[in-house]
Description:
Layout: H1 26-41, E1 46-48, E2 58-61, E3 73-83, E4 87-94, E5 97-107, E6 110-115, E7 139-144
Antiparallel strand pairs: 1-2, 2-3, 3-6, 4-5, 6-7
Amino acid sequence: MSVKPILTEPNKLLRQISKPVENVGDEERRLMDDMLDTMYAAPGIGLAAIQIGVPKRIIVMDISRDEDKKEPRYFVNPVIKNKNNETSKYEEGCLSVPDQFAEIERRRPTVVMGICLSFASSISHRPTSPVPPAKSSLMFVLSFVSPLTSMR
């Protein structure tokens, strides 16, 4: 596991369309571990693979408020499936646009579908709540309240 450099605007790679992940293997698990290390070191609460120069549809995030209790989440090939008309405004930031924060209004809750993962390879980043074993190609539906608040 290692901390990777985060690409910042106006890097053209950030505009590249990421490719779907066909299978979640050791390479993808190592990537997710590196993404978490990079995100925590920044510090941030979410990171897409493209932000470290890898054009794969993978996102990691940890919106836990307790720094001592990490609760990472792994999203592979995420797709927003429905949106609610209810909205909320929160201050947000982006690790690829450093030191810029804005009030963003987003719909919530949102349902996201993607590949189900029980954990990446690192024990230190395993989710604290038990997750049933699953094949890497199993689909899941996650009720996700958006937006995420930024960490400073």
